[in-house]
Design a protein that fits this description.
By secondary structure, this protein is of the alpha/beta class. Among the domains are: 147 residues, Rossmann fold, CATH 3.40.50; 91 residues, Putative Large Serine Recombinase, Chain B, Domain 2 (Hect, E3 ligase catalytic domain fold, Alpha-Beta Complex); 59 residues. The protein contains 14 helices and 12 strands. The strands form 4 sheets. Strands 2-1-3-4-5 form a 5-stranded mixed β-sheet, with helices on both faces. The protein has a 3-stranded antiparallel β-sheet with strand order 10-11-12. A hairpin with a 2-residue loop joins strand 8 and strand 9.
Length: 435
């Protein structure tokens, strides 16, 4: 029987040292299997560097979702892969796949063996194999956690090399020899710490580093005050090993900051009474146009700031532009006045301005949530199995998310959208040089 086949390959990590078969090798074997059976290969799918276990932190598998789409739409009636764990490691995901294959009459070929999802024997083997893969995933996670805990207890550096340090490897074996200070980056850490202890603000130091083009810990020229604060407060620079947020002992690498300086920074930067430009008053809206106002020259969102700790401005933060700076009080006042004037003249229209699409989407959410409650009641009464209830609930959750997203897309009032055009145009016309 001729079938339309789709192949799927996956590898949890892109690390070349990982012993798992590569995505390319898996794909080549799957292609050969399709050709051997005389089936039509309609699409080759693969996800590289993405785990299928519950430890993937919700990371999406785009081509796996495409696989479901091809089967659901009837374009594919055969799935070919290297091993079952490439498709699913979690039992919940595996049973969703099995249910779909049963419903659509799809066969799955794993390592050359055809699995009929309507055959009880094949179904049992798939379930057992899926359970074994899930257990293997849990064991792998435990081994990784034990390894990290052991490394922390021994005082070794965290896997990801922090800013200011570099790893030294044996040129022949590539084994790690030690962790050294990176002179250029370490000097930036010391400079920032010294300037903050000398009374400069986070914003002042951050702005100077950006003007000089200093590369940040994230690898870009963009420095944020939170990045700077996190950096100088990190105990790693006093040669202390941190595990799960707690200092557990001394590290085996050289220090960049003294304990005295680090303690002084911690006391200063974590003081609840410390005044900062962006510290809000309790319950107050701090910057009316934050996230809304944009630079008229480059289109970047304007950022609120202070000058001489007295006058507040919206400024363009984009390096190479930074040509826009408007007085925040004057801009907020003018915008508020225009908005109140506009709303006063459109009160009746505003009361009935929710879009039809928004109302329909909210109604759909309520219907789907009611169906969820019914499934829960049926499960509690024993009239539905856990498997069927889980599958039904998963489908409802996906549909609820879609309906909520649709509601968010249509939540804007047509009346306020009209203000966004006419009001902002008037705001621009009344802009004064004093801004």
């Amino acid at each position: 029987m001729s079938r339309n086949a789709v192949t799927y390959a996956r590898k949890s990590t892109k690390d070349p040292k990982n012993p798992d078969k590569s995505v390319d090798d898996q794909a080549a074997e799957a292609r050969a299997e399709v050709a051997r059976r005389g089936w039509t290969l309609i699409e080759e799918l693969s996800d590289s560097g993405i785990s299928a276990s519950r430890f993937a932190n919700g990371k999406a598998r785009p081509d796996y979702e495409r696989l479901f789409e091809l089967v659901e739409t009837g374009k594919a009636d055969a799935i070919v892969c290297f091993e079952l764990s490439r498709l699913a490691r979690q039992q919940s995901t595996l049973w969703l796949l099995i249910e779909m294959c049963q419903r659509k009459g799809v066969v799955v070929v794993v390592d050359g063996r055809e699995t009929d999802m309507l055959n009880p024997g094949d179904l049992l083997l798939s379930g057992v194999k899926g359970s074994m893969d899930a257990v293997s995933s849990e064991e792998t996670s435990l081994r990784v956690k034990r390894g990290l805990a052991s490394s922390a207890a021994a005082g070794r550096m965290v896997p990801r090399t922090p800013y200011g340090y570099r790893r030294v490897y044996d040129p022949a074996t590539r084994a790690e020899l030690r962790v050294d200070v990176c002179p250029e980056e370490a000097e930036i850490v010391r400079e920032a710490a010294g300037r903050l202890l000398g009374g400069e603000s986070l914003q002042s130091v951050r702005g100077d580093l950006m003007r000089r083009g200093v590369v940040s810990p994230g690898g870009s020229a963009e420095w944020r005050a939170t990045t700077l604060k996190r950096m100088v407060l990190n105990p790693v620079y006093t040669a202390k090993r941190v595990h799960r947020g707690q200092v557990i002992g001394d590290g085996d690498w050289p220090r960049v900051l003294s304990d005295e300086d680090h303690d002084a920074l911690r006391v200063m930067l974590t003081d609840p009474a410390r005044e900062t430009p962006n510290k809000p008053r309790p319950g107050a809206v701090v910057h009316l146009l934050s996230g809304l106002a944009v630079c008229g020259c480059c289109g970047a969102k304007l950022r609120p700031t202070r000058r001489k700790q007295k006058y507040r401005y919206y400024i363009c933060p984009r390096q190479g532009c930074q040509r826009i700076a408007i007085n925040e009080d004057l801009a907020d006042g003018a915008c508020t006045e225009l908005l109140l004037e506009f709303l006063a003249g459109n009160a009746d229209a505003l009361a009935a301005s929710d879009s039809t699409a928004y109302r329909d989407a909210r109604a759909a959410v309520k219907v789907l949530e009611a169906q969820q409650e019914e499934i829960g009641a049926e499960l509690a009464a024993g009239r539905l199995s856990l498997k069927v209830a889980s599958l039904a609930d998963a489908g409802l959750v996906a549909r609820i998310k879609e309906a909520e997203a649709e509601a968010r897309r249509n939540v804007r009032s047509p009346v306020l959208e009209a203000f966004a055009v006419s009001g902002v145009r008037r705001l621009g016309c009344c802009a004064a040089p004093g801004w």
